[in-house]
Write a structure and sequence with these properties.
By secondary structure, the chain is an alpha/beta fold. It is 38% helix and 17% strand. It contains 11 helices and 9 strands. The chain has helices at 5-17, 20-28, 66-77, 89-97, 131-136, 155-171, 197-208, 227-231, 249-259, 272-275, 282-294; strands at 41-45, 84-87, 105-109, 141-148, 175-185, 191-193, 217-221, 238-241, 265-270. It has an 8-stranded parallel barrel with strand order 1-2-3-4-5-7-8-9, surrounded by 5 helices. β7 (217-221), α8 (227-231) and β8 form a beta-alpha-beta unit. It is globular, with a radius of gyration of 18 Å.
Length: 295
């Protein structure tokens, strides 16, 4: 067990009695270049709980147990070829207190206000990190989700907020990771995400042009059919999106394998597919993904 009872209680005690230890741990964290020597990067995503996106497969609360999630993250971060983590402040700070982020990339998640099923879901407010706090925490960049729905007015303030966040991160010379997704607000109020190549091309084109400069912008893109044509829409460095694999992990891994051959693709950002594999073997799933990226 990576987090035994003593270690877990020490984490809780630090949270209650010594909150200043978080800033101290962030300041002392040993940094590294964003890309590995081979020009690739494999990042574990764990920003889902801050959006109440706790579902994996048929388990609606799979990611709800924080101690279990942290243990899975520690297993993942110990695997060769895993370069870092993407998280909201609470999970990131738990990992800092656990001493898990030395020589690891740390990307802070910015907009977590677009809660699934909310009437304001596509007005995706920036309720977590912002560019100033990303810099202050010594992180390597910030990630934002941009769901473009032309039939929902909430998209507009999100679009503008993403542009300003890109500006702020660029001023600090920090990476801005943008995840553009084509979305539609259905008649019943639900939000549907499209993986059609033509739809992805349009949102990639919009995301690539956001902000005063694209110098520090990277994209995080769904794997779909015809990825070569999809990624011909941009010259920006691109990371592949993991997502919830459901009951088809082999298909997901095969899609990553093919897309990683494209010249724009620099690596992978995956969470649920690796942290909650169907067979429960986190180490094996993460090792297999890291091998795809760096092998």
């Amino acid at each position: 067990m990576l987090i035994d009872e003593r270690r877990y209680l020490e984490l809780l005690e630090a949270r209650a009695r010594s909150p200043e230890r978080i800033a101290a741990a962030a300041s002392a964290r040993k940094r590294r270049p964003f890309l590995a020597d081979d020009g690739r990067v494999c990042i574990i995503a764990a920003d889902h709980p801050a959006r109440a996106a706790l579902k994996v497969g048929s388990d609606a609360l799979a990611m709800a147990n924080r101690r279990d999630l942290l243990e899975r993250l520690l297993v993942a971060l110990q695997q060769p070829g895993v370069d870092g983590v993407l998280a909201a402040p609470d999970v990131m700070e738990d990992l800092l207190l656990l001493g898990a982020l030395d020589q690891r990339i740390a990307i802070g998640s910015l907009n977590r206000g677009g809660l699934p099923g909310a009437v304001w879901e596509l007005d995706d407010r920036f309720t977590a990190y912002d560019p100033v706090s990303v810099k202050r925490a010594g992180l390597d960049g910030g990630k934002m989700l941009l769901r473009l729905a032309l039939n929902d007015a909430g998209t507009l303030p999100t679009l503008e907020s993403c542009a300003r966040a890109i500006d702020g991160l660029a001023e600090q010379r920090l990476l801005a990771m943008v995840e553009p997704l084509p979305a539609t607000r259905e008649a019943d109020g639900t939000v549907r995400i499209s993986k059609e190549p033509d739809d992805l091309i349009k949102v990639i084109s919009v995301a690539s042009g956001l902000g005063n400069t694209s110098a520090y912008t990277w994209l995080k893109v769904h794997v779909t059919q015809d990825m070569e044509r999809v990624l011909s829409a941009t010259t920006l460095p691109t990371l592949l999106l993991g997502g919830d694999p459901g009951n088809r992990p082999a298909e997901v891994f095969d899609g990553w394998r093919r897309a990683l051959r494209l010249p724009q693709v620099r690596g992978l950002v995956a969470g649920r597919a690796l942290l909650y594999p169907p067979d429960g073997n986190v180490a094996a799933a993460v090792a297999a993904a890291a091998e795809l990226v760096h092998g």
